[in-house]
């Protein structure tokens, strides 16, 4: 499979944000390294880590998938209002081939990233 430049740049963006050293703190142990790394890369407020973990655990339920989408929408809205040094802010400001990502694009990318 050959990635087009737009996809290649997005892949590199994700890889750079998600490549972090393993943590052995309590949150990393409880959440697991993957979800803990995602929470850090997305700059999810620590108070919401457990909420996100419960949503991920319930993804077999269609309501949980919709709730995860709503959770992501709130994170994106927060970053639109106050950008930070995180993957969500990177996606908001990302421009590929002269076009930025829409809110729906960002939601789909992040839900897929978190869910799978």
Automatic annotation (TrEMBL):
SUPFAM superfamilies: Cytochrome P450. It comes from the Bacteria. One of its GO terms (molecular function) is iron ion binding. This is Uncharacterized protein. It comes from Mycolicibacterium duvalii.
